[in-house]
Write a structure and sequence with these properties.
The complex is a heterodimer of chains A (about 120) and B (about 260). With about 120 residues, chain A is an all-alpha fold. In chain A, about 30% of the residues lie in helices and about 0% in strands. Chain B has seven helices and no strands. Classes of the chains: A mainly alpha (about 120), B mainly alpha (about 260).
Chain lengths: ~120, ~260
């Protein structure tokens, strides 16, 4: 009975067909020498990185005070009791008060301008 | 002779006072406006429903109903605007004396718009299909820019006139109080800021008035009223303060 020769696919070195053991030599990849442009770029990034590190130390954040909204000043109109106003001026003041507090004129009606379109 | 005199007297007394007549007219136009506003809101709601139904079913019957409803709404809107313009035109007569020329110009503009709206009553009645309605609606939209300009101009001018009247009353009262008694001579220093405050207030009113004088460009209304209103409110605050100061002065020096 003839012997069946099996090839182990996982083992490159164990190839029963090949007459001698083959050795795979890893290829040495030769990197091209850095061009001046790449060199300048590397230096630039290095400087930026150093500056970034320095800035972290310099600008250490101080917790800022919470922003409290300041109230806007509302003009306060002092109110003088009507009874304290001398009678001879009462009518004139009443007239001015009435005009100052006059009810506003009716505002234009809100209508649909696109009606019919 | 006595009878004739009595007749003339009774005739004279029966004549309505112009100011009361004007107040009646304002009140009448205001009521007409409020009534039409209710009408318009009801008809507009009906129009929206009919429009929705027509979009859904699109039959001859639904289209016919939509045309009728649109015409009713357009007619009501036309009347509503007409009533409002009439109300405004009479209302701004109240303090017209303060700036008669500017006020008259605006009243003329309002009258022109009223005439246009009046002429559209018949035009709306004659609309018979949707394309005709659309053409009319486009024309209206262009005209409405000018209608809005007239409306807001009137609102601003009315407030300017009113505040100018208040300034005049305040100035008169200040002079009376200043010259009223010897005791008040001490109070003269209290009035020092008054002329300046009056001037600032008048400047605000002048600025408010300039907003409506700009021409409208394009088919969209550029609403100048909110900006103008800010100026009017600034002026009003000054006048309220002056009125209050005047009261404080007389209670301090006369009581």
């Amino acid at each position: 009975m003839a012997e069946i020769i099996y090839q182990n696919p996982d083992d490159l070195q164990n190839n029963p067909i090949s007459s001698s053991d083959t050795k795979i030599n890893p290829k040495k990849i030769k990197l091209p020498p850095p061009t001046p442009k790449i060199f300048a770029l590397i230096i630039l990034f290095a400087i930026i990185f150093i500056l970034f590190i320095i800035s972290l130390f310099i600008n250490q954040k101080v917790p800022s005070a919470p922003i409290i909204p300041t109230p806007t000043s509302i003009p306060v109109v002092k109110v003088t009791p009507q009874a304290q106003i001398p009678t001879q001026y009462q009518a004139q003041f009443d007239q001015i008060d009435e005009l100052l507090n006059q009810q506003e004129i009716l505002t234009p009606p809100q209508v649909d301008q696109d009606l019919g379109l | 002779m006595v009878y004739i005199f009595l007749l003339f007297l009774s005739l004279f007394l029966s004549l309505p006072n112009p100011s009361f007549a004007q107040a009646d007219l304002i009140s009448q136009y205001q009521n007409d406006y409020q009534f039409e506003l209710d009408q318009y809101q009801k008809l507009y709601q009906d129009y929206l429903e009919k429009k929705q139904v027509n979009q859904k079913y699109n039959t001859i019957n639904t289209e016919k109903e939509l045309i009728q409803s649109t015409k009713s709404s357009l007619s009501s809107r036309n009347q509503l605007l007409l009533n409002y313009l009439r109300y405004l035109r009479v209302k701004i007569d109240s303090f017209k004396i303060m700036e008669p020329q500017s006020t008259q110009t605006i009243q003329n503009q309002l009258s022109q718009q009223e005439t246009w709206l009046e002429s559209q009553k018949l035009a709306i009645n004659q609309l018979s299909d949707l394309p005709q309605i659309q053409t009319w609606a486009k024309n209206f939209k262009t005209q409405y820019v000018q209608i809005q300009k007239s409306m807001y101009s009137a609102l601003i001018q009315h407030d300017v006139n009113l505040q100018l009247q208040i300034i005049e009353y305040l100035k008169d009262l200040t002079d009376v109080i200043k010259n009223d008694s010897i005791a008040l001579q001490e109070s003269n220093q209290w009035f020092i800021s008054f002329p300046q405050q009056f001037e600032i207030s008048q400047n605000y009113l002048q600025t408010a008035g300039t907003y409506y004088q700009k021409n409208q460009t394009g088919n969209r209304f550029q609403n100048f009223y909110p900006e103008s209103k800010k100026e009017l409110e600034r002026s009003r605050t000054i006048l309220k303060n002056l009125n209050s100061d005047l009261k404080s002065i007389i209670t301090k020096f006369l009581n």
